[in-house]
């Protein structure tokens, strides 16, 4: 029983570490600049947050191969080429589970309206 608890705890720590790593990679690579802090998409830049894992994985792998569906996607090719296959898999999982978090005290107003701010 003790051994199983240690393995479970180790797995949880490992998974939490991977998520933290994907967030760090997302921020380090400047993804938030176009896709938003929570991958919610900004303007014409697509939302990645909550998309199906298989779709995200396929798109990242295609970008890594130099394939894109739009002229705007060409900038993504250089970013995707830097990712390992393992990172692509991990990023697809992370983005598919990502949820937007907005603290209650985001603005010091009686109301909150994100219209026009790109929702980032």
Quantity of strands, as a count: 0
**Low-pLDDT stretches:** 4-17
Order of helices and strands: HHHHH
Broad shape? globular
What does the radius of gyration come to? Answer: 17 Å
By helix and strand content, what is the structural category?
mainly alpha
Proportion of residues in β-strands:
under 5%
What's the CATH architecture name?
Answer: Orthogonal Bundle
Helix content: 40-55%
Q: How are the elements arranged and paired?
A:
Blueprint lengths: L1 H27 L2 H5 L17 H12 L9 H8 L3 H13 L23
Helix pairs in contact: 1-5, 3-4, 3-5
What's a concise summary of this model?
The protein is 54% helix and 0% strand.
Describe this protein's structure.
- There is one protein chain.
- With 120 residues, this protein is an all-alpha fold.
- It has a single domain (2-97), classed as Cytochrome Bc1 Complex, Chain D, domain 2, CATH 1.10.760.
- It is 54% helix and 0% strand.
- It is built from five helices and no strands.
- It has helices at 2-28, 31-35, 53-64, 74-81, 85-97.
- α3 (53-64) packs across α4 and α3 (53-64) packs antiparallel against α5.
- The longest helix has 27 residues, at 2-28.
- The chain is globular.
- The chain starts with a helix and ends in a 23-residue tail after the last helix.
- 13% of the residues are buried.
- Mean pLDDT is 78; it is low at 4-17.
């Amino acid at each position: 029983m003790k051994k199983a608890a240690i393995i479970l705890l180790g797995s949880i720590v490992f998974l939490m570490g991977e998520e933290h790593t994907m967030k760090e990679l997302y921020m380090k690579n400047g993804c938030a600049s176009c896709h938003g802090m929570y991958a919610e998409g900004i303007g014409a830049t697509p939302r990645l947050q909550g998309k199906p894992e298989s779709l995200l994985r396929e798109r990242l792998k295609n970008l890594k191969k130099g394939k894109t569906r739009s002229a705007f996607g060409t900038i993504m090719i250089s970013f995707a080429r830097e990712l390992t296959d393992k990172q692509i898999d991990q990023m697809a999982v992370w983005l598919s589970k990502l949820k937007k978090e907005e603290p209650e005290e985001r603005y010091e107003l009686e109301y909150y309206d994100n219209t026009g701010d790109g929702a980032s």
